[in-house]
Every structure is written in C-alpha cells, then in structure tokens.
Amino acid sequence: MPTYFETTLIKSWLEEHPLPWLSYDTEKKKLIVVVDNHLLSTHRSCGTHYMLNAVEGQNFKPGFGVPNNRQWYLDFGIVFHKLVEYYYQNFRKDNFNVNEWAVDLAYQLWMQKELEVYKDHPEYKAILGLKGFSALLLQYAQRYRADNERLRIIATEVSFGKSREVQLFSTPAYEFYLAGRMDVLVDDGYFIMPMDHKTVGTFKRGDPLDRYLNDEGPTGYVYTLTKILPKYVPEELIFKRDCTRILMNLISKAWDVNAPADRFRRLTIYKTQEQLSQYQLRMVLSIEALLRDLITYINHGVACVPRDTSHCTNWYYGKCYFFDVCRQSSEEAMRATLSNGFVQLPVWDTENVSL
Ligand code: SF4
After folding, report:
1. pLDDT category of residue 67 using cuts at 50, 70 and 90
2. Atom 2 of ligand 1, residue of closest alpha carbon
3. 169 near 176, Cβ under 8 Å?
4. For ligand 1, atom 5, which residue shows the shortest CA distance?
C-alpha cells in the first residue's frame, strides 16, 4: 500500500485533478477507489496508456482518422448493449414492435454513435454494417421471442459502483470498490445469474467459451452477484437458488445460411468460492499497482510510468493510438504531440457510459 506521505501526495494532487474513479472522502478521511474491469484491464495492458487515457482523458482529435480498433469495440458495444437492454425491458409487452426495435431504434443508436466512421473496419465488414446488424437483431428476436424465452428477467441495466455496493478492500487510509454494469439478471428456476451478451466471430473455430473462462470481467460479475442481489430479489429466493454462475449469451457475427439457428449459443461459467476469493485478491493487488504507477506519474511525469511495449503495435488488434506520443525523445516532445493530435475528454466513468 502507498505510504502515509504518498497517500497525502495523491490527496493534494486530486484537489487540482479530480477523477471519477479516485476521490477523497472527507468524512471517512480515506481515499476511495472505484474501478471497473475496463479500467483495470487497461492498466494491466499498459500503465502509460492508463495515465494518458484514464487520468488525463487524452483521446484522438476528431479529424485525425478513424479511432483505433478498441474504440470500435467500445462504441459498437455500447449500441449493442443498449438494444439488448431495451429488448429485455420490453419484449414481453403487448405493444413491443420488433421492427421498430431492430430497424428504427438500431438505426437511431447507430447514427447517434456515428458507427459509419468505422466502415473500413474489419469488424464493421464482418457484421455487414447497419443492415447486417438489423438482420442479426431480427434473428435474435425470432430465436428468443417471448414464447420461446424460458428465462425470467429479474432486472436490466444493473449498475454498481460509486454507491459502494461491492467492496473489495478496506484499510484506515483506503477503500477499494468494484464498479460495473450487468446487462440482464435472470432466473432459470435453478440459478440466478447475470446474463452477459457477447458478439463472437464464429462458432466454427475452437471452443467459443475459451475467451471468457479466464476473463476477469465475467468472474467479477459472479463475485458481485451475491452482494447486490438483496436489492433485486427477496432473501428466501436467494437461498433457494445457486448464485455461482454467469450465463454467456454468445452471438456469432458470421452467418451460415444453411444453419441460421447456429448463430446463438448460451453457455454458463461456474466459479467456486476459492476462485472468487482469489479474484478479490488479484483485484486488490491490481489497484495497488495502479496507485503505485499514479504516484510515479505525479512525481516524475508520464514518460517514467512503466510500459508494456508488447501492446504498442497490438492494442486490442490495432496499433496503440499513443504510439507517436511514446516514441518521442522527451516528456516535452510527448506533450507537444499530445497537444497537436489529441483532445482531452471526460475520463471513462462506468456509471455514466452513454451515447
Ligand atoms: S504506445 Fe505502447 S507504451 Fe505507449 S501507451 Fe501505447 S502500449 Fe503503452
């Protein structure tokens, strides 16, 4: 953990540099860290990238080309999850109109998020753009229409974070909390589970679940589940159900006309109590490492923060958009590159992710 002096340093630095994921609680006299899987995985991928993006809010300036691949995944993911949430809030209502959802609302959200800027992106092409996306939604609504969907929907848009629902760790100087947002909370009669929607390339290569078995995101949802459930279901129901799983609702972008139904798969991932305790410890140590890098950043500048250069040319399948910043000869030159090609936007805030 940071020393007393380092903690005081962070506290006074925060007065000039407020962050959505780190704050000082004057009543508790503690630093409060609230981080989600996106923030922690960004930091694990590269400390320098984290400081530039999640501390300074540095982003590509519009007009400097299409943002990198990771931005497509974020932007498309936001549109996709909004539509899924809308579906599960409304699909059993008499006035639910599947065309208005899959065509009109999809068009509206797609345009609002400006997804057409990605028209040369391989993922855009794989999904066949907006038309292909609407077709996928129509297929989904046919496969999981109200009379075919056996799951009971407990809640949609389940957010947790700054209300401090999911505590990871507490010391006299710090409290760490987990933040996140579950698409849907479901009950299948045996299990109460988060249902997480993921688009995958195809089901034809390997086990589609492999990508998620070690992923900290799904484990974090299972870890969170029992802590937030009392808000959504009566206690006696929690005791009657097993709450140790997550349901992965996988949707293939590739479409085989000879087997259209094979575009959707639902698979569960189970976590033992031991795995959940290990997860908690990993998250605490990840946050500790993040704070240590923040102290380096405050004391010595971004050029001295540890880097993982294996991600420079492979930042989630693309070149890291800070590549030209990090190759500069001095902090001053890095700052000049940032001021020419980048713009400072609000830092990622899990609970306020919106279109
Ligand atoms: S270019 Fe490399 S070192 Fe720089 S932020 Fe990106 S991944 Fe990190």
Report:
1. low
2. 312
3. yes
4. 49
Atom 1 in ligand 1: residue holding the nearest Cα: 323
**How many Å is the maximal CA-CA distance in the chain?**
66
Long-range contacts at 277-284 (CB < 8 A, ≥ 24 apart): 279/216, 279/219, 279/220, 279/223, 280/168, 280/169, 280/223, 282/216, 283/40, 283/168, 283/176, 283/178, 283/216, 283/220, 284/168, 284/169, 284/176
Going from the Cα of 80 to the center of ligand 1, the distance in angstroms, rounded, reads 28
Supply the pLDDT for residue 65. 53
Q: Where is 76: in which H helix or E strand?
A: helix 69-90
Residues across the chain: 355
Six token digits for residue 314 = 């492979």
Strands 180-187 and 152-160: antiparallel
Residues 6+ apart with CB under 8 A from 295: 2, 6, 9, 10
**CA pair distance 238, 30, nearest whole angstrom:** 33
Within 148-272, residue ranges assigned H as helices are 210-213, 216-228, 235-240
| Residues 305 and 297 sit within 8 Å (Cβ to Cβ) | yes
Q: How confident is the model at residue 91 (pLDDT cuts 50, 70, 90)?
A: very high
| Residue bearing tokens 């498309």 | 76
Q: Which of 42, 322, 328 to mutate to test the pocket of ligand 1 (most atoms within 8 A of CB)?
A: 322
Which of 41, 323, 328, 338 is the pocket-test mutation for ligand 1 (most atoms within 8 Å of CB)? 323
